[in-house]
């Protein structure tokens, strides 16, 4: 069976980035895209995470240069601020584009069970 002209040679899920797609990291990047910068306590409360869990996810994002972490003080209290990088914005945009395409294909798909293959 031939494929419709609108299909491509790859599935939208191939565009998902494992570092970004994980639920917590996607949430972090989405929040930081909205706020540009947020402190650790705000992110922890908003995304309902433990210190260790949030710290580990931020570490993964920072290793990929998707966020920048700055430590300092607010008054006498130590604070950690997190900021999305240009690379993080680009990765989030690509992730959202892949998700939009996946949703578009899902909404336009027929549950008829027609089998597709490359034999034609």
What does this structure look like?
With 120 residues, this protein is of the alpha+beta class. Helix content is 51%, strand content 16%. The protein contains five helices and three strands. It has helices at residues 18-21, 23-35, 40-47, 51-63, 86-108, and strands at 37-39, 67-74, 77-84. The chain has a three-stranded antiparallel sheet. A hairpin with a 2-residue loop joins strand 2 and strand 3 (77-84). The radius of gyration is 19 Å and the shape is elongated. The mean pLDDT is 87.
Concise description?
The chain has 120 residues and is of the alpha+beta class. 51% of the residues lie in helices and 16% in strands.
SSE topology sketch:
Elements: H1 18-21, H2 23-35, E1 37-39, H3 40-47, H4 51-63, E2 67-74, E3 77-84, H5 86-108
Antiparallel strand pairs: 1-3, 2-3
The radius of gyration over CA amounts to: 19 Å
What is the arithmetic mean of pLDDT? 87
Lateral arrangement of strands in the main beta sheet: 1-3-2
Low-confidence stretches: none
Q: Tell me the total number of β-strands.
A: 3
Largest sheet: 3 strands, antiparallel
Task: Please identify the structural class as seen in this structure.
Answer: alpha+beta
> Approximately what portion of the residues adopt beta-strand conformation?
15-25%
Please report the distance between the alpha carbons of the first and last residues: 6 Å
Shape: elongated
* Contiguous helical run count: 5
In N-to-C order, the SSE pattern is HHEHHEEH
Helix content: 40-55%
